[in-house]
Amino acid sequence: MAPNPRPVVFAMTFELSISILLLPFIGETPRPAAPPDLFALQECADSLDVAIFNSPRRPHARAPMRILVAAEPDLPEGAHLVAHEEGATPQRLPHITTGGPPHGLVATVERPETGTWRVALVAAHAPDPILACQEIEVRSGPSGMGKLEVGVDPHWESRIKWERDTENLYSLWIERLFDAPVDEDVSWNPLADVLKDPARNLLYDHLGMGEDEDGVRSDPDCADFPYVMRAYFAWKLGLPMAFRQCRRGNAQRAPTCSAELITNELVTTESDRVAAFKAFQRKLKATVHSSSLRGAPGDEKSDFYPVRLTRKALRPGTIYADPYGHTMMILRWYPQGDDRAGLLMAVDAQPDGTIGRRVFWKGAFLFPKDDDVAGAGWKRFRPVRKERGALYELDNAEIAASIDYGDHSTEQWSFGQDGFYEAMDALITPAPLPPEAALIATLDALYQQALRRVESIEAVRAYFDKTSKVIAMPQGSGIFLTAGPWEDYSTPSRDMRMLIAIDTALDFPARVERRPERFVLSPGEDKAQRRTRLDALLEREASQRTLTYRKSDGSAHTITLWDLMQRKLAIELAWNPNDCPELRWGAPEGSAEAKTCARRAPDEQRERMAEMRVWFERRERPLQH
After folding, report:
1. pTM
2. Do the beta carbons of residue 136 and residue 83 sit within 8 Å?
3. CA dihedral 593, 454, 343, 50 (to 10 degrees)
4. The domain boundary residue, chosen from 103, 138, 173
5. What is the pLDDT of residues 450-501, one digit of tens each?
């Protein structure tokens, strides 16, 4: 597990707070106007477009009160938060901001006084300076809501509904939970470490029951990770949550799901709210699987619906399901610079419970080939609503017509595989870049993927430190989708992506020739000269990036990213956890690097691996919905 990034978070907050406090004394910046008297307002209200939330749900004087602004439109420059306790002087709150869309502000009142408060989002130079206002009652002490009546009460009550404001807050919460500097390689294991961190989890102890002290432990894998995050958020805010039992499809047929919904409003057999949520979560994890997210684009008996390829639709929390069972969620967008490609960052879970970040690109986000069954791609949770006492999910027509959503679309499959990646590239990096800058971005993404492979291969060492028992290898395509030690420590799916990623990087100079309109090309340079120059740059830059892994004897060995790219034939047979690290990194037979190899997969497994190699040679894993 990577070092805990909390010091970075606190530093960001502290630096921002100091900059706000010192703002009146820097240069010619005028002193800000006095905060407005919020109790002079006839009406204190927010809206679905610009909403103010507080956490905990019932604030009290013994704990910090977090103020969360979730906004759909761009906020005016200089927008800030003002907090006002009745009878006291209004105060401007230092805050941190998140990306967008949607946009967010987060502030904290460390020890709020008991009584009635008003909090407002203020834009001093706007025609109407009060953009949103919210009245909050602060109690003297915590008032947890712990007990339930067994067999009568639901797992949790649906108090509010999914609409623009709650969806915007969900995006804000996801982004803040896993955010870190773009060049920092961070990961967490288990998920509880993130949920227990109040600097990251904006809903920490939101219910006032100390519910996050044990982290509401869940340990999701890639398939149920989106569901677990959505359920946790819904539980905290009192939002409806539903999921379905789904059947796996195959190479000719997309998965299909039951019409019956399993919801939070089913009665519980637990006597307190935390235990009831844990029971719901266990039911969830036992029911959903990777196929649950890959229904056909037009299938309405699905927990998800497909979205347009727009910045508004592709927001934090939007899910990507690939054809082979892996799922990821958007974390944050980073804008394009003058000589720097834009970035779309996602977050995912691995079979061993590690939560990590990854950059969107062709090597990591696999899209169906043109003649494959459609279904994998970008999706959002289908909104759950309540009518006449029963929960239901909106159908596609209702979503398309909704003022809260309106982003249902199947357009991503109409582009074809190559067109999909080009459309995403244009969205992430709208303006043409010099090919050198785009190549660097491609190698950075490949390098990030390779670094994560170091962690994946090292993870099996702990298993063999405890036992010499050979890990059983599943039959046929089961190598890609199983349970137990093989799922935890083998890497066939990840290596398939690595091979595609290597191919994509090596193909970059040819892509410049295929798509010249996406690049700023040097005038007067012919295609042959440019190809030679970019091939040389590719090798030089890849050779400057190094990977260090531990060999069988525990010694460190370093190879370059270029070495790995030249070993792609060996990587086609490097996914068996029973093989030594040297083999899994493609050490040439007879080399000094390979001499320390102390463990090899049984001959029977290697014979079957040789038969399966054709999948990796073709970069076509057998579809297993």
Report:
1. 0.87
2. no
3. -170
4. 138
5. 998 998 999 999 999 999 999 999 999 899 877 789 988 999 988 999 999 9
